[in-house]
């Protein structure tokens, strides 16, 4: 029969190892700058993975202690609790994203009131950041980036477009689609997609079969863009039906180089991870802080520039 | 006159009532219903063109590959909630050794199947040894595997997507087993006859049948044979029906269940192998929610959640319904925001229909 006693010893051993690992990391010098990121982006998301890489690289280069936290799901109540908990631990700087102003206003205000300097990245925007007492906002205004994408497509003379959304319900992706329609100046239907690449690809095929007059497909992230490219390939429409995407990946950049994709829009989110770490280090040491917001995107990566960033994308920096 | 002597232990059952008591009947009827619905609402839009059919069959096939062994496991009275995470994990196990360590694809495939099978065995062992519900044990593996996948991938690659498998797999002996097209000659012949539509550039709309569809059919047939024609199949029904009684009769219940957990894990690895070699990349988020989709397909297919009753063919119909609804809704022009409502409602209706049919069949005996 199964005995619990047999399991207890190895379990205790594992616990001891984990405790020692945790202790080793907290034994850092007391005067070392400590920066904590609390964002809504799971590190499993390729986009946020690049943010975390930026943070890690800055921490290593500058000798700063940096931590990255995010709830496992899009759970704003939990994210608020995380902000409260981190504020109580008195870091030298806190970096947050604010995808839901209503849910996060109180925790962020409390952290500021407790004397913790706060930088807002990615979502929230400039006005909200300053209303809440944050130092500055860094990121890409998704709606504005969408507008710029729409204007570029309008300039090509295309009018029939679709916005392929692989993660319905994510408001920043909705903003990208809405901005795109504004920039293009016509209604743009949203095609509801999924994370699963096979289903996503086949949905694009189905959509294109039912709407054969579509001239341009906007993908709002790498998880939508790669299946879109595959679908156009299968339909024999590569290069004929134009497409472009938000965010980058090696496959996307390869497609841009090969002329199968117009451009990839880079939010340059590596900077959102790297620069706040450096800023807080300067703030702690010399009380230096930039006085204006810092827009990191949109950077359009086109055929002329794509080849030079492929290697960087493979390393998770672009 | 002496009438024919009948064995009193054998009861004669009419062919109709025997048919009605088959678990897959409800699902088969549901499939017909769904096809009729889409024939009316989307018949002229290309859903039933060669391209459209391959389109929904490919989606059905991948889910069906998962659903067949999941059906067997559920008949044996257990759940495996870790299959979705296992897909993401297996994909990464294939891609990382190939892309970062220079392993040939065939080797990283073998490695992946071995590791996943091992984890499946651990799942099974944990369930039979601890006596905990498999729902809890595999819920634990669901989270552990996701965490492990993310930690490993980010630790090794610094990203959460690993691409570049296409170039490496091109000349691999196992590549065409998972990512190729079959019946290309037949399709070309049909295209010459004008039975298959043309693309904008004049090529036939499909060049072959994705090999995943063959895997789906073969796997379903194999599981059906196992379930209905082998001793192992009897063990599965016995383990799910009344485990203690089965044990007393000498059925190796523990071994049966562990074997089935290995099978579901291997099916997840097969799913991952197909997806990685077809898309050329692996992603830590792959397989999200597949555990539930597989359960939906199996339940629509007439398998009881409580075990002891069900079929692999039913799961095949369940997966087919899933794929047709999933893709068909695009052709109808119905707002796809409603897709999940559709799917959930279909599941409840299918289960109600199944139990209605079953009750009637039982009463008529």
TrEMBL record, chain A:
Record keywords: Signal
InterPro entries found in the cross-reference section: Bact_Solute-Bind_Prot2, Peripla_BP_I, SBP_2_dom
Position of the signal peptide: 1-29
Top-level taxon of the source organism: Bacteria
Residue span(s) of domain Periplasmic binding protein: 36-279
Predominant cellular place of this UniProt entry's protein: periplasm
Coiled-coil regions listed in the entry: none
Annotated compartments: Periplasm
Gene Ontology, cellular component aspect: outer membrane-bounded periplasmic space
SUPFAM superfamilies the UniProt entry points to: Periplasmic binding protein-like I
Membership in a protein family: Belongs to the bacterial solute-binding protein 2 family.
Protein's recorded name: Sugar binding protein of ABC transporter
Source taxonomy: Bacteria, Pseudomonadati, Pseudomonadota, Alphaproteobacteria, Hyphomicrobiales
UniProtKB/TrEMBL annotation, chain B:
Membrane topology classification: Multi-pass membrane protein
Xref: InterPro entries: ABC_transp_permease
Keyword Cell wall biogenesis/degradation found: no
Subcellular location: Cell membrane
Coarse class of the protein's main subcellular location: membrane
Cell inner membrane listed as a keyword: yes
Pfam families from the UniProt entry: BPD_transp_2
Protein name in the entry: Xylose transport system permease protein XylH
Organism: Rhizobium loti (Mesorhizobium loti)
């Amino acid at each position: 029969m199964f005995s619990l006693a047999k399991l207890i010893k190895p379990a205790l051993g594992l616990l001891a190892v984990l405790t020692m690992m945790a202790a080793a990391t907290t034994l850092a010098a007391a005067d070392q700058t400590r920066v904590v990121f609390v964002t809504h982006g799971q590190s499993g998301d390729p986009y946020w993975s690049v943010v975390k890489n930026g943070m890690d690289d800055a921490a290593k280069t500058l000798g700063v202690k940096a931590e990255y936290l995010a709830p496992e799901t899009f759970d704003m109540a939990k994210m608020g609790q995380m902000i409260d908990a981190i504020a109580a631990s008195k870091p030298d700087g806190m970096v947050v994203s604010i995808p839901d102003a209503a849910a996060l206003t109180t925790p962020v205000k409390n952290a500021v009131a407790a004397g913790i300097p706060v930088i807002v990245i990615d979502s929230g925007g400039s006005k909200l950041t300053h209303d809440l007492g944050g130092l500055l906002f860094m990121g890409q205004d998704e709606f504005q980036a969408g507008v710029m994408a729409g204007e570029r497509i309008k300039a090509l003379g295309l009018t029939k477009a679709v916005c392929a959304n692989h993660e319905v319900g994510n408001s920043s992706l909705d903003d990208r689609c809405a901005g795109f329609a504004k920039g293009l100046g016509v209604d743009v239907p949203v095609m509801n997609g999924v994370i699963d690449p096979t289903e996503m690809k086949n949905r694009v095929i189905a959509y294109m079969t039912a709407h054969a007059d579509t001239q341009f497909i906007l993908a709002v992230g790498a998880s939508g863009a790669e299946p879109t490219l595959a679908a156009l390939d299968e339909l024999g429409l590569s290069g004929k039906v134009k497409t472009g995407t938000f965010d980058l990946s090696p496959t996307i950049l390869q497609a841009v180089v090969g002329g199968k994709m117009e451009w990839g829009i880079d939010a340059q989110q590596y900077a959102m991870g790297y620069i706040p770490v450096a800023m807080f280090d300067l703030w702690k040491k010399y009380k230096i802080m930039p006085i204006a917001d810092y827009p990191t995107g949109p950077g359009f990566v086109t055929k002329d520039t794509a080849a030079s960033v492929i290697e960087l994308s493979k390393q998770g920096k672009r | 006159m002496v009438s024919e002597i009948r064995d009193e232990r054998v009861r004669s059952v009419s062919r109709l009532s025997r048919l009605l008591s088959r678990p897959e009947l409800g699902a088969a009827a549901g499939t017909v219903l769904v096809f009729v619905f889409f024939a009316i609402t989307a018949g002229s839009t290309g859903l039933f063109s060669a391209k459209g059919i391959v389109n929904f069959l490919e989606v059905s096939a991948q889910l069906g590959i998962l659903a067949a062994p999941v059906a067997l496991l559920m008949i044996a009275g257990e759940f495996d909630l870790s299959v979705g995470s296992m897909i993401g994990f297996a994909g990464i196990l294939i891609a990382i050794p190939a892309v970062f360590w220079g392993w040939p694809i065939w080797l990283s495939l073998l490695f992946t199947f071995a590791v996943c099978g091992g984890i499946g065995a651990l799942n099974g062992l944990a369930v039979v040894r601890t006596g905990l519900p498999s729902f809890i044990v595999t819920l634990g593996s669901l989270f552990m595997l996701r965490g492990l996948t993310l930690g490993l991938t980010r630790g090794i690659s610094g990203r959460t997507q690993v691409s570049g498998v296409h170039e490496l797999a091109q000349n691999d002996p196992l590549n065409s087993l998972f990512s190729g097209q079959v019946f290309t000659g037949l399709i070309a012949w049909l295209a010459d006859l004008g039975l298959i539509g043309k693309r904008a550039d004049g090529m036939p709309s499909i060049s072959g049948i994705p090999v995943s569809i063959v895997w789906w059919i073969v796997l379903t047939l194999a599981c059906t044979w196992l379930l209905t024609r082998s001793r192992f199949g009897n063990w599965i029904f016995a383990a799910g029906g009344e485990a203690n009684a089965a044990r007393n009769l000498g059925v190796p219940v523990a071994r049966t269940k562990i074997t089935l957990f290995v099978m579901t894990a291997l099916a997840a690895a097969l799913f991952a192998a197909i997806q990685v070699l077809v898309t050329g990349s692996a992603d830590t988020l792959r397989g999200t929610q597949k555990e539930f989709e597989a359960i939906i397909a199996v339940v629509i297919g007439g398998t009881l959640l409580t075990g002891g009753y069900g079929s692999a063919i039913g799961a095949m119909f369940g997966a087919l319904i899933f794929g047709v609804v999933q893709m068909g809704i695009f052709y109808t022009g119905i707002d796809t925001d409603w897709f999940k409502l559709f799917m959930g409602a279909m599941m409840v209706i299918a289960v109600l229909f199944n139990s209605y049919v079953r009750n009637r069949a039982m009463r008529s005996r």
